[in-house]
Each structure stands twice: as structure tokens, then as C-alpha cells.
Design goal:
Metalloprtase-TldD/E_cen_dom, Metalloprtase-TldD/E_N, metallopeptidase activity
């Protein structure tokens, strides 16, 4: 959408009685192809446009959105938004970000756009190659398929405070899922990668082979008795142990008083040396953006610095409620008021690789799959279903399944040992993580 059209929508809202207004426009195109057992299973093409308008009448606000961007539809959008705002309850914390915090161009070049657009035939070839490589692994007996995808997104924000900015990005992905064994002894394995530039993808064959190898490695998984033992979370999923922290330090949760970390700001909650950084300006990063969804300049931050919790994640509304300043973590779609989210989150690596962590623990559980997490947000009590491998004398002994691990996250975070095997696979990344003792519920 032309920038002037967004300014026209904002101006129309002001003319209709809004004291302030902001308009967002989002456009997405995508193409994905899936195959299974060597046959084409689905081709999906998406083209979507959304226009969102948030207006303020005093301290009352309303947000409306629609996919029709014609002049007539825009006029109705404005009329509806202002009428809704006049009827909304007052919110003393609502409003735009402070003007002095708004991003000003030129914005950094984060290299998020690849001009290459693959054809459906190319994506099909990649999906077939990934699945074929998975099925070629000895012991693989079936397939859940292979897929390949491309996407392009564009986002623009304009406000009556004078901010105007846009960012765009492309995405490429390949995945495969394999099944090994027969009957009740079947095991699944999967692998997938998503990147901004096509050239950064691993080969389809490498992704497929990894999926097949994971499935086969799980064959013969057994149940174990309940115990307490060291637990290592593999780097591919270790961020799942850290993600509850992000919800717990979000401004809205702190403002509501519903966080197990609400009294822990500027306190040590991890071991000395632990660093958790959020970098919105990583080149080609899946979470990179020059400004947040309120137009606030984004900056690199150490959320955990030498084990100490340094900040909450704040948008403008939660910052006002807490008497603080926004941290540039506002996140929103075309509808609804902003929430909060991180950008490129990284738990910085430690000294020991996965083998080193197993050697230090000697005996315990290596978790390679997690499902059904449960969290008490007020206390930090946490549990999750998982499967993986039992290791003895620092070496993998046998695969295990149908296990639940549990503990309190404040206690867990304080005892985490961070591995060195960091791989940048997504917008949130962590090395493998060792907890010296966790309750394990088995048979």
C-alpha cells in the first residue's frame, strides 16, 4: 500500500473525531508444497492484505481491521473505529509511544529480503529430495512427508504523531518427517529449517537424512522408573526451557502481578556468567526489525547479564502502568492493541559441548523431544512430557520414552549449566542445557 494512503486513513480518522490515530498495513504472499511417499500431496498459495486502524478519543481507544482496502472500505473502517472508541471504557495507560523514542531513518540494512522467488516446481523438487533422503535411511519404514516453502511479508506503520516506517522480509523453509519401525514400536523423527535467504538453507538431502536418522535412533525406546537425576536439554529444543522466562518478564504480566519473577528485577536468577541477549539488528535474523510495532527504536539488550535479570519487556502501555519507559518490545498484528515479544533471543554459549555436559553429569537423561508443557505462572512450578536417551558413564546407553520431568523454574534457572553447542536455527536459540538434578516421572 502506498504510504500516502495510510496517512490519508489517519487524517480521515482525525477528521472524524479521533484525537490520535495509527494505521498499519500488512501484506503477505506465500507458496508451500508438500509431498508424501513420493507423491505430490498439497500446493498452497496465499496472498493476503490487511489494514488495521487504532484510534484514541481521549483515553478511550478502539482497533478495527479488514482485508478490503478500497476507498469505500477505508471510510467504513474509520467510521466504525471512531464510533467504537467513543463507547470504550477509559484506559489511563493507553496511548502512543513517546515521540522522543520513535525510530528515525535511515534504518539499518538488516538484509532480510532475498529477491529470488522459487516456482512451485522447484519447491516440489526440494520437498521430494528431502523426503527421499529420509526414506533412504536404513530402518525408516514410512514417511510423514516433506515440504518446502517460500514467503514474502511487508509491514508499514503510520501515526498521527508523525511516525512512518516500513519493513519487509522473505522466508524459505524445508522440512521432513520420517517413521521408523512397525506397529507399537514405531518412532518418528523430524527436521526442518527456516531462513531469510535461500542460500542459507541446508540442502534438502541433509535435512531429510537428519529426519530419518532421528527416527531410527529412537527405535527400541523403553520406559524407565521414576527417579531424580541430571537432565540435559538438547540444543534443538533447549529454548523451550527458557521461553517461560520471557512470559514472566513481560510488562503486562508484571503489571498484573501474575509472574513468578515479579520481585526479581536486578537480582541474580542464573549462575554467574549466564548471558541472555535480545538482538533486533542481527543481519538476516528471523526476528530482526529496525523498530518495534509502535515505531520505537529497537536496541540490543542483555536481558540476563552475568546471571542477573536486568529488565522487563515493555511496550508503551505496560511501561506507563509500571512507571517505566518502553524497551522497544511492542508487538501487534493488524487487529488489537500491542502486546510484547522479543526479537532474536540468544542464550550465549558456555564452555562444554554436549559430550562434555554428559561427561560432567555422568548418568542421566538427554531430552530430545518435548510436548505438553505445564506452567504455574505465579509460582514457576513447571513440568513437561518428553522422550530422549538415557546416558551412563557420559555415553548414550538407550532411547527412553513416556517420561515427565518437573521442577520449579527459579530453582532450575539457578542451577543451569550452559553448553557450547549453540546453533542459530531460528529467532530463539540456545546451546544444550544441563540441570544437575530434576524429578523424572516414569513407569
Amino acid at each position: 500500500m502506498d504510504e500516502n494512503l495510510l496517512h490519508d486513513v489517519v487524517a480521515a480518522a482525525r477528521k472524524a473525531g479521533a484525537d490520535a490515530a495509527e494505521a498499519v498495513f500488512a501484506e503477505r504472499q506465500s507458496l508451500s508444497v508438500g509431498v508424501r511417499l513420493g507423491e505430490l500431496e498439497e500446493v498452497e498459495r496465499e496472498e493476503a492484505k490487511d489494514l488495521g486502524l487504532r484510534v484514541f478519543v481521549g483515553r478511550r481507544s478502539a482497533t478495527v481491521s479488514g482485508s478490503d482496502v478500497s476507498p469505500e472500505a477505508r471510510a467504513k473502517l474509520v467510521e466504525r473505529a471512531v464510533a467504537m472508541a467513543r463507547l470504550a471504557p477509559e484506559d489511563p495507560y493507553a496511548g502512543f509511544a513517546p515521540k522522543d523514542r520513535l525510530a528515525k531513518g535511515p534504518f539499518p540494512d538488516l538484509d532480510l529480503i532475498d529477491t529470488y522467488e522459487p516456482s512451485a516446481e522447484t519447491l516440489e523438487d526440494q520437498a521430494r529430495a528431502a523426503e527421499a533422503a529420509a526414506r533412504a535411511i536404513e530402518g525408516v519404514t514410512n514417511s510423514d512427508g516433506g515440504s518446502s516453502s517460500w514467503s514474502s511479508t511487508f509491514w508499514r506503520l503510520a501515526t498521527s504523531d508523525g511516525f512512518s516506517g516500513q519493513h519487509a522480509a522473505t522466508g524459505f523453509g524445508i522440512s521432513a518427517s520420517a517413521i521408523a519401525g512397525e506397529g507399537a514400536g514405531m518412532e518418528r523423527g523430524g527436521e526442518g529449517r527456516s531462513v531469510r535467504h535461500a542460500q542459507d538453507l541446508p540442502s534438502p538431502e541433509a535435512i531429510g537424512a537428519k529426519a530419518g536418522q532421528q527416527a531410527v535412533s529412537r527405535l527400541g525406546a523403553r520406559k524407565i522408573g521414576s527417579t531424580t537425576a541430571p537432565v540435559i536439554f538438547e540444543n534443538r529444543l533447549a529454548m523451550s526451557l527458557i521461553s517461560p522466562l520471557i512470559g514472566a518478564i513481560s510488562g503486562p504480566a508484571i503489571a498484573r502481578g501474575t509472574s513468578f519473577l515479579k520481585d526479581r528485577l536486578n537480582q541474580k536468577i542464573f549462575a554467574a556468567g549466564v548471558q541472555l541477549t535480545d538482538d533486533p539488528h542481527r543481519v538476516r535474523g528471523l526476528g530482526s526489525a529496525p523498530f518495534d510495532d509502535e515505531g520505537v527504536t529497537t536496541v540490543r539488550r542483555a536481558l540476563i547479564d552475568d546471571g542477573v535479570l536486568t529488565t522487563w519487556l515493555l511496550n508503551s502501555a505496560s511501561a506507563r502502568q509500571l512507571g517505566l519507559e518502553t524497551t522497544g518490545h511492542a508487538s501487534r498484528g493488524s487487529a488489537g492493541a500491542p502486546g510484547v515479544s522479543t526479537h532474536n533471543l540468544t542464550l550465549e554459549p558456555g564452555d562444554l559441548d554436549l559430550a562434555g555436559l554428559m561427561g560432567q553429569a555422568r548418568e542421566g537423561l538427554l531430552v530430545t523431544s518435548m510436548f505438553g508443557p505445564s506452567l504455574n505462572g505465579n509460582t514457576g512450578d513447571w513440568s513437561v512430557g518428553c522422550s530422549g536417551f538415557w546416558f551412563e558413564n557420559g555415553q548414550i546407553a538407550y532411547p527412553v520414552t513416556e517420561i515427565t520431568v518437573a521442577g520449579n523454574l527459579i530453582d532450575i534457572y539457578g542451577r543451569l549449566v550452559v553448553g557450547s553447542d549453540l546453533e542459530l536455527r531460528g529467532a530463539s536459540n540456545s546451546p544444550s542445557l544441563l540441570v544437575d538434578a530434576l524429578a523424572i516421572a516414569g513407569k
